[in-house]
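Module 6 notes. Inverse folding takes a fixed backbone as the condition and produces residue identities as the prediction. Think of it as a translation problem where the source language is geometry and the target language is the twenty amino acids. Below is one complete input and output pair. Work through it position by position during the lab.
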């Protein structure tokens, strides 16, 4: 599959294409609205939720694993 975003072009290797369907993209719920690269969600015909990702963010490595450490000090 070739994806052309206007700024970049990339190819994704897939084993097979299962099908195609029209979808309605819904706004993100507040709890996940800050996830970088995530632009929407949709509910598929089988009731499952699918995430819609922004291709430019994927191509630019915007989904690299970033870990954040947090230290909590407990006092007795």
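Target side of the pair, the amino acids:
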């Amino acid at each position: 599959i070739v994806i052309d975003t206007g700024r970049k072009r990339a190819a994704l290797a897939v084993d097979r294409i299962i099908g195609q369907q029209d979808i309605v993209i819904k706004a993100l719920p507040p709890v996940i609205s800050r996830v970088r690269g995530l632009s929407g969600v949709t509910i598929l015909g089988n009731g499952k939720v699918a995430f819609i990702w922004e291709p430019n963010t994927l191509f630019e490595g915007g989904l690299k694993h970033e870990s954040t450490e947090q230290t909590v000090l407990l006092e007795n």
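Reference fact for the lab report: The CA atoms of residues 35 and 44 lie 21 Å apart.
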